[in-house]
Design a protein that fits this description.
By secondary structure, the protein is mostly helical. It is built from six helices and no strands. Helix 2 runs parallel beside helix 3, helix 2 runs antiparallel to helix 4 and helix 5 runs antiparallel to helix 6. 26% of the residues are buried.
């Protein structure tokens, strides 16, 4: 019914209607790729943020942690809790630095830099090896899920780049 209102004019040719519908379809495809791409890149922000939440919980003496966070920051926090005092401030500085690096990967990935996706995924995969050593299956599973979501964002970024090259009028 919507089509009839848009194309009920006698001056509108069937070609115009087909072009309009084709462009609408392409715009929908582009929007879907953009959503997948941003969703993948946003995982870097979740990783950074939840790692910092884990840090503050651990340094405050709590036992709760998020499995999506970074193992390297949790290891630094555990060691800092053993030594206390200045070691906690050093761990906090280290954790802030690492979280900023992952947030930076998120910002750079959102600017369509494949190297940021890839480098961040490699570092997060290496971080997952710490959980493998500790045999923390839940954390390993969430690392795999996060890596899959990051990879989905990378794939969508590549498809979006190709789409934009092949359809410059839709961008």
């Amino acid at each position: 019914m919507e089509e009839n209102r848009l194309f009920n004019n006698e001056e509108t040719s069937p070609v115009d209607k087909e072009q309009f519908l084709a462009k609408q379809k392409l715009m929908g495809e582009r929007a879907n790729l953009e959503r997948q791409f941003h969703s993948g890149a946003d995982w870097f922000f979740w990783i950074a943020g939840l790692s910092l939440v884990n840090t503050f919980i651990m340094l405050a003496g709590g036992n709760l942690s998020f499995v999506v966070g970074l193992g390297i920051t949790q290891l630094a926090d555990i060691i800092a809790n053993q030594f206390g005092g200045i070691a906690k401030f050093i761990a906090l500085g280290f954790d802030l630095f690492v979280a900023c690096v992952f947030a930076g990967f998120g910002l750079l990935a959102r600017r369509k830099n494949n190297w940021a996706f890839i480098t961040g995924m490699i570092l997060y995969g290496l971080d997952g090896l710490l959980y493998l050593l500790a045999f923390d299956l839940l954390a390993i599973g969430f690392h795999v899920l996060a890596l899959y979501c990051l990879f989905t964002g990378l794939k969508a970024n590549n498809k979006l780049r190709a789409f934009e090259e092949n359809n410059p009028m839709v961008v």
